[in-house]
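re: ur question from the group chat, yeah i did fold both. here u go
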Amino acid sequence: MVAGLALATLTAPGSAVAAPDHTAPGSTAASQGYPDRKLTFDRTATYPVFQNRPAGEDPATATVAEISAVSPNGRTLVYTDAAARRIGFLDIGRPDQPRGLGTLSLAQLGDAEDEPTSVAVVGRYVLVVVNTSASYTAPSGRLDVIELATRQRVRSIDLGGQPDSIAISHDERYAAIAIENERDEDATPPGGRKGDLPQAPAGFVQLIDLDGKTTPQRWKLRTVALTAPDGRALPMLAAAGITEPTDPEPEYVSINGRNQLAVTLQENNGVVLVDVPTGRITRAFSAGTASVSGIDTGKDGRIELTGSITDVPREPDAVAWINDRYLATANEGDWRGGTRGWSVFDSRTGQVAWDAGNTFERLAVRYGLHNNDRAAKKGTEPEGVAVAEYHGVRYAFVGSERSNFVAVYDLTRPTAPVLRQVLPTTNGPEGLLPIPSRDLLAVSSETDDASVGVRASVSLYRLGADRTGFPSIVSADDASGAPIGWGALGALSAVPGQPQQLYSVTDAAYTPTRILTVDTRHSPAVVADATTVTDAAGTPVGYDAEGIFARPQGGFWLAVEGAQGSENRLIRLNGNGRTEQTVPLPAQVAAGLGKQGFEGVTASTGRDGREIVWAVLQREVATDPAGIVRIGRYDVTADSWSWFGYRLEGTTVPGDWIGLSEITVVGDRLAVIERDKLNGPAAAVKRIYTVPLPTGPTAAGPLTVLPKTLAVDVLPALQATNGWTQEKLEGLTVGGDGQVYAITDNDGVLDATGETVLLRLGTYRKVFGQR
């Protein structure tokens, strides 16, 4: 995590900006987005739930983990898998080695289309709420009570509608279930627009008296209607300004220590409070609107925190009581709203006591997790919120569905939350499950995409580590006070004359291209500055820059990949990022390339002052032997290319390929990154090899294949983060401080978890065995 950071000034290309430096705990750094070290959760494991599938099932079958619960001893985790119509069980007795315990198919308990929507554990029973609806107009559902030890159903209770979430009271005397009876987004109500409310039948809440937890057959169901018997609005809801009180659509439920129930009406932008013992509605209030500025509102490949939204309904999804007075909401939004943050409400007044404003979205930007693809919609989409107390301190955990992180806040003062930490997740974190009895937090992620190898998972985090693996890199503020936007860092270069600085460059995930200065004095490292790349006329330009080299003579070389072979080229920039020279590939080489061309660039200067540029192609040229890729030597003075061969490792995994991703000079050798396209538990080849540095050009004829030597297998270092092992190990350099650095490309948070891993692999001598 970012450990106690203050501000210092760094010198880098372009304008100087403020960048964090170390300060003592208790500083004001947390208010600037850099938490101090009073809390440290560290990720211990990431368990892909497809590994817990039934025997014989195709591993590519969609399987997810949405909402989770835990046994009273904190050792068995139960999760819902709506995609596969089942619930799953994990042994988390060892948080660093979770183990699949199999699944229970709802087809065995009802119908093959029955969908679990939430789960809870009471004593020795698992309570699974199940959507059995045949249609939007005929919603139905049930509660299955399953004995945890035997996985046998001991009772099934008809809920009378389509359920969404379930909550258990602290004293375990009550359960509350939101019966949403959700709207059909494709239906048009009379006088309304497509997807509008109202759409009958109306939702309500079911309460269950648990009768001491031990005898499910004696449990009693009570209904809390949120509309009048004739379907009209309840006066209390109408007076509160609920959007459409005749169709409340309750979404999420939470019960406080006084057995007060809070229910969010997401589409209706409201909250209803219920006294659970009596079933009486005690208050209803609107979640209100918010105007937020300083956010990214354009899906245009630019991270620009200059946009704003005005008077947008919060439309809260998850809700959690902070104490018996204040409650927190995750304002994901639905059809009309979403304010990209979370709020604290005073239940006594229904008023906002605190609101995150733009700070939640700016966390995504600072930590390199911003998803520009969602900028024009609801941004980070904070969907989940949970509150729990660890060692006398109460914390809020807020999950971003679209940027794949959970932010952790200290709630010592409920009306003034303090950011403590940001935790990376896999895609679509849905369920947030604090397990304070074991100092654990479990996060279940619902997005599963076997086609790109990023699968739904359960991630575990433990409180108490001295240091954490994430983040390894964050950004400082720019001159306007906003965090520098960054991502897709697939290249590295040392900064001449600055031993503790590196350069990186953004690729086609963003436009225009920017050169980023990374300060490695800090842990995590800090993106301290950004320089926009321009064409020869000075106009900002978007290159698919896959490699960068900072020339000792000044300026840069970029290796630019193209959608087709002829678009691959070397670009020489001056020190301000202006394009000064373009070097195309030879036509016969370009003709044999597909979309995977240039991936890295470096340069060397001989004793005669002659500059030689070295570049790698990621995949084979069509006319070359299979498994042989090219390393190019470009003589700047002679304006001539010559080529050498490099033999790739093999792969037998269907759909996989292996290629080169980077090149850098290390003494009398060239170091390259060789990798496969696999991630997660399938990742196998993430290596750095060296080859002899050719002393001159080659004659025409067959490629001379350079002998390679393994320098370091990087896979163990990537796996040591205990997260989803990243696919794109793409940047490598030796810094002026003598350290070897490598970095992963997060693909701009598209088809990837979005996590960036900056590795410090050791000294130049240790890694490459050279002085």
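okk and heres the other one u asked abt
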Amino acid sequence: MMTTTERELPESVSERAGVRAGSPLPLGIQETGGGVNFALLSRNATRVRLELFDHPDDATPARVFDLDSVRNHTGDVWHVWVAGIGSGQLYAYRVDGPYDPPAGLRFNFNRLLLDPCATAVSRSPAWDFAAARGYDPTAPGRDLTLSQRDNARSMPKCVFVNESFEWGADEPLRHPWSKTVIYELHVRGFTIRPGSNVAHPGTYQGLVEKIPYLKDLGVTAVELMPVQEFNEHSVTRTDPCSGRRLRNYWGYDPVVFRAVKGSYARSPAPGRQNREFREMVRALHAAAIEVILDVVFNHTAEGDEWGPTLCFRGIDNAIFYTLADDKRHYRDFTGTGDTVNANHPVVRDHILAALRYWVIEMHVDGFRFDLASVLGRDGAGRLLANAPLLERIAEDPILRDVKIIAEAWDAVGAYEVGSFSERRWAEWNGRYRDDVRRFWRGDDGMMGAFADRICGSADIYSGSGKGPESSINYLTCHDGFTLNDLVSYRDKHNEANGDHNRDGTDTNFSANYGTEGATTDSGTEDARTRQIKNLLLTLFISRGVPMLLGGDEFRRTQDGNNNAYCQDNETSWHDWGLPEQHREIVRFTRGMIAFRRAHPVLSKEQYYTDAEIHWFGPRSGLPDWADPKQKLFACLIWEHEHSSLYLMFNAGADAVDFHLPTVAPTHQWHIAVDTASKSPRDLFTLGEEVPVQNLCTYPLTPRSSAILLAMKPNPARGGATV
């Protein structure tokens, strides 16, 4: 065991004017009594120093306060009150204690540490994680040897943000799940590419400028990929083709849980990102669009024992992380090297406080929890039947009205889709994604599973008492192929990630329809367009909550890369020339969202009853569910006394005529959607549906789908009204 080197000590804080002992609560930093209270929790520390800085790249603090182990120490909390602190003040900590990795203790007083409760971090053009390692990589034993190097100059600092913000009449929108359509996007990638036609590309404000587009599309919520502060320079590999340094684009490795990502703000002023984030939320709410954050609480950027010491590791490694039996190492259920000890009471409270902060102070409407199954594990890694943290999130009085969505699996085999915690939790339905992809690809034996998915996945959720609103239905997400690439590539093409195409999943259930990648062949392009429409139609007629990957509505491509986490470039960025090029798909997506909204029967928060839905084969009898070669069926959905919907699906290679059910004498079948038709006859505007000429059958081409409506004819318009 080693102790960090002694540094010159300043005078005791008790001897200074304008400095008091302070209070242990709340943790973090808070203005009170004409000054600011600092409070940091560290159970095993022997000494804590608070340092105040004038500039982000300063190596030497302007003021230093060593906290007295009696006067400034209550329980496990170190605290001090300081007068004369204004908004924008930069600060950080140094924490001393044993450096004993085999015992799980990794204190290093030479490392500047971020406050775990910081709400903003200063921007650093080239944050050097290597300089933040707490060990000496050149010494024998590597992480067993304490580093004597000071890293203050290269370490970002925390920012005290204490500016008022005028929310005006902003209130939580509380859209019910039945009226929710989620659009997943990356704040920077959404507008950073030249041609995005915004004044502030790649920023929160840039997203605000695109609100009219989102509103016109019909989405009711944006799910933002991580905006918790992270280091975009943490990736050290290069693109083997271009030679350029890769960057951490996705950001699924936060350094602290409450801090807003600074580089997405248009202003570089410390703390300005908080105001700009709030302005974005307020503007989205004014457009009736909710804000859901993709949050990471299962691990941090500190990684395994070879990673940097940035915050939690240097404050109390043994409490914040799940350690192996040999406490030098970390249990890794995340695939990143470390695992947050989420069900330790201290850590549980810390996570809950962070969630409350985002809701109370930043007005967000919900959260999607990355690798949420990790949050249900105990300190030894066992999955808990009633994980305290998951129950607390669901039952917390502040969080009761927010949307909570689980990615209900982790990196080491836990897969809890359909059984994740209690009913309050919705879940990304990975089985929906896979089954719908496989059905439309033409795989054998998928017809029954496909029918279950479009009906809300009762086979998955009803056993745990959950309804279809628990199923977040998606075809694609940030992790994997885009929708365009799903129908354009048979195999992944991740060579640009610098890992010899070994990263990313090989299980994509994709097809290229004759050519790998982009093509000018009209037959291949027609097949791909039809399949994209089939997939989009399926998504928006399915019970459950639809989630659309940003850019899928205009065929955004990543050139076959299904793991673009390090591609902060044209591979990932939205190309705003594509909406014009693929305006047929944009129109179809917008129309299907409107169709879902116009027919609430498709999104009810209950499963279909036998009286509401009837199944047919192409010749009017029941589908042959037992035949694995069958790839076509229809369903009749009773909407109300004036209307019914007849949905037909043909994933096979042959054309088929579907017999039509009889309708009331006052009604007639009308074509609402047919994916085999060219725009504008692929989807008709509400009230403009075209009557079916043949009253007995409807022809469906290979790999296509159609929706008919039983409605009263409207001779005046040649269309119909409900």
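fwiw on the second one: The longest helix spans residues 522-541. The CA atoms of residues 525 and 718 lie 32 Å apart. idk if thats what u expected
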